[in-house]
């Protein structure tokens, strides 16, 4: 174990060299969630509450895909399976809480259903 710890510096150097691109730039190893500013929402164990909270923010004013909503929830330490989130989104659409339509490039997108929206 001690000899492995002594060699650790060399191992780290080899890993760093492996991730260098031409020109000396390094690959970005930051997760996508850290790159985008997701809104902060209260922690909840209700998937529907988390969705409504997210879509009620300025971030949610832009139509969002299921994947974007899921990433924002995970950035807030709220974890639900994709299948659960999908079902909740459909349920919220039926309850007239959120709106959904199909975008040609992104697939289904969701926004909050504001009072006064046609529907």
Entry keywords:
two-stranded antiparallel ribbon, elongated, single chain, Arc Repressor Mutant, subunit A, 119 residues, mainly alpha, 7 helices
Offer a concise description of the structure.
This protein is mainly α.
**Low-confidence regions:** none
The name of the CATH architecture of the domain at 31-112 is Orthogonal Bundle
Task: Give the class from helix and strand content and strand pairing.
Answer: mainly alpha
| CATH fold call of the domain at 31-112 | Arc Repressor Mutant, subunit A
Task: Report, as a whole number of angstroms, the end-to-end distance.
Answer: 66 Å
SS summary, helix count: 7
As laid out across the biggest beta sheet, the strand order is 1-2
